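[step 3/7] fold_predict: job queued, chain A
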Amino acid sequence: MARPPLPDLSARAIQGTAIAVRVTPNARTESLQPGDPIRIAVTVVPEDGKATAAAQALLARALGVPKSRLTLLRGASSRDKVFRLD
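[step 4/7] structure written:
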């Protein structure tokens, strides 16, 4: 299945920036909507950090950076998360 097109968030890819996101797990399709916070829908279930990992990967793809450069600062078990770009 083809990946959905994502908005280009490369302008927000500034080192040290904190990026607030709101994750919707168990969605029908993956999507990312820019704004503050960035809204991310992922298709995986919210157990054992799977939804957080999927949201991190989707955000990294939109920012145009490797997912290893995003560090979760807050919200490991919450829908509202804050990532830092290292």
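[step 5/7] annotate
The first strand starts at residue 18 and ends at 24.
The beta strands are 18-24, 31-33, 38-41, 70-74, 80-85.
exit 0
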